[in-house]
Amino acid sequence: MVKLNNSSLNNLEDIIKGIKLNYDPKKETALETLSKNWIETIGNKISKFSKVYEITSDNILKVVCSDSIVANELYKEEEKILKNMNKKMAKTGIELKGIQFNYRKWEESKNE
Predict the structure, then answer these.
(1) Using one digit for the tens of pLDDT, what is the confidence trace for 56-108?
(2) CA dihedral sign, ordered 111, 36, 72, 83
(3) Are 90 and 73 in contact (CB under 8 A)?
(4) CB-CB neighbours of 97 under 10 Å
(5) Which value, in Å, is the radius of gyration of the alpha carbons in the chain?
(6) How many Cβ atoms from other residues are within 10 Å of residue 94's Cβ?
(7) How many CA atoms does the CB half-sphere of 103 hold within 13 Å?
């Protein structure tokens, strides 16, 4: 391997080993399962105005909402929703610690 000039790294191989890829197949499957369970938990009517966006490494579910009114109404029911989601997710080994609702990322999430 080629040694880089003016670098504390020994070679290019060290750089490649240090690169972390964002793709995690288990995470993708978890998001799909969470999304399906989200719709079952809150119902088809509300699910049209909210969707699972991501899950953090500390098991916080991030949900995007179409506007602040939807986010606020879901926030009021967070404890109940969290309890029901954890019941549905028990088989997968994922235990959610909380839910964050964000209406500012709604437009961005529609492109994904």
Answers:
(1) 989 999 999 999 999 999 999 999 999 999 999 998 888 999 999 999 988 87
(2) negative
(3) no
(4) 11
(5) 19
(6) 18
(7) 11
- For residues 47 and 39, is the Cβ–Cβ distance under 8 A? yes
Q: Which two tokens stand for residue 69?
A: 């009114």
Compute the distance between CA of residue 49 and CA of residue 76 in angstroms, rounded to an integer. 16
- Taking only the tens place, the pLDDT of each residue in 2-50 is 555 555 556 666 666 666 555 555 656 888 999 999 999 999 899 999 9
- pLDDT attached to residue 58: 92
- Using the 8-state DSSP alphabet, how is residue 61 labeled? E
pLDDT for position 17: 65
Q: Is-contact 86 98, C-beta < 8 A? A: no
Phi/psi at 25 (nearest 5 deg)?
-60, -35
98-102/60-65 β-pairing:
parallel
